[in-house]
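Q: What structure does this chain adopt?
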Amino acid sequence: MVMTVFPGHHGLSSEPSRDTPDISLVKIISILLEHKWKIILTGILFLLGGYFYAGSQPRIYQADTLIQIEGRRTTLGLLETLAVGDQGGNPTTAELEILQSRMVMGETVDRLDLAIQIEPRRLPFAGDFLVNHGFTRDQIDRLTPGILADWLGALGGGHQLEGSPFVWAGESLQVSRFDVPSQAEGRTHVLRVGEEGQYVLTRNEVPVLTGRVGETVHDEVSGYRLFVSQLEAHPGAEFMIRRVSQLDAISQLQRRLTILPRGKDSGVYQVMLSGQDREQIVRVLDTITGVFLSQNVQRQSEEAEKQLAFLEEQIPQVNVELTEAENALNDYRAERDSVDLTFETQNLLRSLVAVDNQLSELALAEAELAERFRPTHPNYQALLRKRSQLQAEKLQLEASVNDLPETQQEVLRLTRDTQVNQQIYVQLLNKRQEMRLVRAGTVGNVRILDAAVLQRGSIAPRVGLLTLGSALLGVLLAIVGVLLRLAFNRAVETPEQLEAIGLPVYAIVPVSSGQHRLSHFLRRRRKEGVNIFRGLLAITDPEEPTVEALRGLRTSLYFAMLESGNNRLMITGASPEAGKSFIAANLAVVCAQAGQRVLLIDADMRKGHLHHAFQQAGKGGLSELLTAQVGIDEAIRPSGIDNLDFLARGMVPPNPSELLMQQPFHDLLDWAAPNYDLVILDTPPVMAVTDAAIVGKHAGSCLMVARYGLNPPKELEITKRRLEHAGVRVRGAVLNAVAYSTNRQYGYYNVYAYR
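A:
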């Protein structure tokens, strides 16, 4: 047994009215599930796009090496002990800055001619993708015989595959020398490959040089010089070649270089270089570290040379002073007959000699500091303070000497001069020998621990990460689009919205998957297409919830039409695609199945398509009947369903509205009223034409179809007002194509079955 429940005489619920639909988490999830295929399809499209983008990017590789920088420095005296804080500078930091300096980078650029930049010409759009995946010219030709050649002919100005300008995988160009005039620096030149190793260099499509691989070609007048060391490409292939300034090449090289410390305060650093050419980046990194090591050794050697020159200058002077001091001491002792020093005088002598030695070391250190810093430098100031302290101590010791007997004073003075000069002389000789050893075996404070090695695989682009990220982005954008559409959607979604504008809801018809299978898109000649349905859901799938809802509508209309003046029911809508024809056709079927004799009239003589539902022809219908081309017995056809007859629209007339206003249409309805229990008229949309207003004057009842998520309440209100102004009374509305997840909260409108 089947029972339909309709609260109230309008078929409305007792829930409080809401002007706008609420947006809850359950509804959001339901909406997303409804659009899941759109979201998945968008994610797939973005995934493919991300993979294509990542696959089209140049592969970036990386080579690395390890270097060690020691903090020790070779100095002459007390410079290290006199350094104040970090004012003397961090040698390791300084070496790292030197490694990245234009001095090192510039020599690397010059040695390897990195100012010469070569870029192969690729097939537009897909060329980089194909080359990155290893496609050669022969493979492309075998995979797409003739197709790519025609495409290349269109893209390359008539070039065929054999002579196309595009470079494929396995083709390369190496240039060892490329000199250009100053005005052409940074400008792009085109090298076009010829037959048997020949080539032509052009600029702005004007030939500049013509040569052969392995030969130097030059033009003394223009200043061009070119040496192509290797060329592997098919005839017609083109390479873009340009020479940039040394400063630009250095800047580009510096951006590709990365230095990272290995361990805290270990002095070991990892130097990495990235680039597209795997072999080149290894050569470049080895050259950078080699230049860096060479200049470091050279700087250390130059420092040893300077210190050695200083020592060679000082040693003879100190030797003369030592000889004079020894002679003076010997002469005085001979004159005084070998005067010996007392114990007290010997202690004073040792103290004075120690102070004098320190002052001598400070003098040597000051000579070196004077070449590096100004007197205001903190290290220089520290030296001066140390010297002042020693001089003050020396004055105290000399005051004690003045208290000694005159003979002891003189012997002490002469002995002190001799010992001080002797110690300074020995120290200078030792330092000179040390500097000679340093100069002979200078290794600097930098060591290369590991030679440059290419890392496995590429570091960029990360194809998997980019592809996955693109897919997630696509899904996110699709979800955001669905949610934005939900947030800004002003279409009707609840029966309360229809009730608020004075349209009682007679039925809520859920969306039907079975109806989608019956629907087809018909493209009309020279006109826009239209969605039609072949077959009737009430016949093909009578147990569908949609059909059950229409049976409930049938019951509700039975009581509503008791108050109407006739048995004519007009089904209309505000705009196309609302589903009025679907409602009219299937309602006619369920009414006929209930035993009523039903006549279904397709009153949309412009775009009516109900004849497709019964799989009949459209001609020989209403328009021909109204123009007296056919008789009523010929125009009204059996539908193949018991108790249901059908009147098609007929051929499209030039004046549909005028035909509906004439007497033949009135006579048709007057004839149908006593011969049928129910006459259902399907009309065009009210907002499009006036046909519905004309037909509605002859119908005792009018039902408006509003599609869930399509028709805004304002549009339905205007439609209702327009019909009422024409004298048509709108009984109520049918909320059509309601999503199941949304329809669940209005279950009291649905049909419940008891077994």
